[in-house]
Amino acid sequence: MNKLRTKIFLALAFLFLIIVALGSFGSTFIRRLATDSSHIIQDNYASAQYSTNMLRAINRIYGLHAEKDLLKHDVLINKTNDINSLLNEFDENLKKEEANVTEAGEIELVNELRKGYSDFVFILKDTNSTSNKDELKLKGVQLLDKYENLLNILNDIYRINTRAILRKNDQASQTAGKVSGYMLIISSVSAIVALLFILYLPKYLVRPIDELTAKIRKISEGNYNQQLTIHSNDELGELSNAFNTMSLRLKEYEENNIHKLLIEKKRLESVIDSLRDAIFVLDENKTIISANLSAFEIMNLTQMELLGKYAPDIAAGNDIMRELIKDLMTNGLLPQEKGNSKSGISPMQIDLKGKKLYFNKEISKINLNEDGSSRLIGYILLLKNITQFEERDTAKTDLIATVSHELKTPISSINLSIKLLENEKVGSTNEEQRHIIESMKQQTSRLSRMVNELLDYSQAESGNIKLRIEPVTATDIIDYAAVAMVMIIGEKKIQLDTKIEEDLPCMLADVEKTVWVLVNLINNAVRYTPENGTISITAQKKDNFVVIAVSDQGSGISAEDQEKIFHKFVKLGNQNPRGRGLGLAISKEFVISQGGDIWVESVIGEGSKFSFKLPAAEQK
C-alpha cells in the first residue's frame, strides 16, 4: 500500500532540493558580487579618503600660518602646536596613500606629492625662523605657490580614484546583471516545478477532505444516507471506508429510534394539550416555538398566527401577551429573581366567552447544562387557571361581609340591654350581677372590634375602600394615634419617643384610615415592648413620600416571617393568641389603596421597625 505520508514526504523532499539548489547558486553569485564590491571599498575608496584627509589638513595648516601675525605670543604657541599636529596627520595619510597605490599614473602623483609636501614644510619652517619683513613676504609667496601645487596634486589623486570607483561599480553592475539572469532562469524552472506540485498535491489532499466535510455536514442535519467515493490505497481510502461504515450504522440507528421518538413527542403534546393551564414555550430570542390548545383559546389566535412569531410583535396587538412578557422585556429579570414572592403578584383577569377567568402568571427559564456551564435556551410561560380558587375567595369575602354586617344589629341590641341593666332606674343589681355585666361588656366590646375588623377587611379585599384624600400633617396623624393609645401605653409605663423632621410637608391621606394603620402599629409595638420600655415614632421625607416609622424593643421577627407577616390570617408563634392576624393585612390594603407602601425591618433580639409611606402634597 502506498502510504499517504510517503507521497507527501517525496513531494516535500523534491521542493527541499529545489530550495537548496537556489540557495547554492545564489550564494555563489552573491560572493562573486561581494568580491567586486569589496575591491572598490578596500582600494579606491581608501585612497579617496586619504586624499580628502590630506586636503583638509593642508588647508588648515595654511590657514593657521596666515593667522600667526595677528595673534599674541601665548596663542601663537598654541597655533604652532596645532600646525605640528596637522603636519603629522598629513604625513600619516601620505604614508597610507603611498602603500595603497592601485591605479595607473597614481604612483607618479604620489611621488610628486611627497616632494611638494617636503618643499612646503621646508619653506614653512624657514618662514617661522625669519623675522625680516621682506624675507617674510618672499617666503609667503613661495609658501602659497607650494600650497596651491599640493592642492592640485591631491585633487588629481582624488579624481583618479573616484573614476576607478565608478568604473569598478560598472563592473559590479555587470556581474549583478549576470547573477540576476542566472537566478531568473533557475527560479523560473523551480517555479514551474513547484507550481505543478501546488496544483496537484492540494487537489489530491483537499478534494477528499472537502467531500468528507460536506458529507459530515449533511449527516449533522439528519441525512444519514451519505457515502464517500474515494478510491485509493492509502490512509484516505481507509478513512473513506470507515466513514461509509459509520453512516450505514447511523442510518440503521435512526430508522430504529425515530419511530419511538415520534410516539413520545405526540404523547407529550397530548398531555400538554389536555391541561387547562395555558403553556407557551419561547426560545432564547423570545420567538414562540410551542403552545397548547388552552393557550390558543385564551389568545384567540390560530397556530399559524402564533407559532414562529416574535412574542413582542404579538404583544403589540394583544393585551394578554403584553402582560405575559412584560417582565422579560423590561430587564430580563423574572419576578422570582427580583425577590418578589408569588403572593405579591395579582392574578390576571381574562374575559373568555362571556366569563371572567383568573390566571396566575409564572415564567421559568430553560437552561442547558453543558460541561459544567449553564446556557439559556428559552422560556416557559405558564398561565395557571385559578378561577375556582378566586371564586371561592370572593364567596368567602362576601360571606364574611354579610355575616359581619348581620352581627352588628344583635351586638347593638346586646349593648343596649347591658346599658339598661346598668341603669339603676331599671332595677338594682348585686355585686355578682355587676361582675357578670362587666364581663358581658368586655366580651361584647371584643366581639364588636372583631366584627369591625372583618368588615374593614372585606371592604379592603373587595376593592370598595371609600377614601377621602386630603392634605394632612404627620404631626396630626401621630397625635390622633397617640391619644387613642394613651391608656394602653400608660398601663405598661412605656415611654413614647416622637421625632418629626423639620419643615416636613403634608401628605395626601385619608385621615381615618391612616390613623387606624398607625394605631394598629403602635398597638403591636406596645404588645411586644417590655414594661418601662420605649417606642419610637419618626416622620421624615424621602423622595416624594412622607415616611412614618414605629420602632419597638421586642424580640424581633425572623426573615422568613417578615415575608408573610402582612398576609391575611397569619399569626406568628410569639403573637398574642387573641389576635386574628388581620390587623397588618388590613393596614397594608389601606396604605396601598392610598398610593403608598408598608414594610418591616427587624433583627432577632433587637426589636422591629414598621414603616409606611404616603405621597407628599405639593408645596407651594
Description of the molecule:
With 620 residues, the protein is α+β, with helices and mostly antiparallel strands. It folds into four domains: 4-197, Up-down Bundle (Four Helix Bundle (Hemerythrin (Met), subunit A)); 275-385, PAS domain (Beta-Lactamase); 393-461, Helix Hairpins, CATH 1.10.287; 469-615, 2-Layer Sandwich (Heat Shock Protein 90). It is 62% helix and 14% strand. The chain has 15 helices and twelve strands. The protein has helices at 4-66, 73-98, 106-128, 133-220, 235-273, 293-299, 303-306, 311-315, 319-330, 387-422, 431-461, 474-491, 511-528, 559-562, 583-593; strands spanning 278-283, 288-291, 348-352, 355-370, 373-385, 469-472, 495-500, 507-510, 534-542, 545-551, 597-602, 608-615. The strands form three sheets. It has a five-stranded antiparallel sheet with strand order 2-1-5-4-3. Helix 1 (4-66) runs antiparallel to helix 4 (133-220), helix 2 (73-98) runs antiparallel to helix 3 (106-128) and helix 10 runs antiparallel to helix 11. The longest helix has 88 residues, at 133-220. The two termini are 101 Å apart.
Question: Helix segment count?
Answer: 15
Structure class: alpha+beta
Mean pLDDT across the residues is 77
Strand order of the largest sheet: 2-1-5-4-3
By CATH, the topology of the largest domain is Four Helix Bundle (Hemerythrin (Met), subunit A)
Q: How big a fraction of the residues is strand? A: 5-15%
CATH class of the largest domain: Mainly Alpha
Largest sheet: 5 strands, antiparallel
Per DSSP E runs of 2 or more residues, the count of β-strands stands at 12
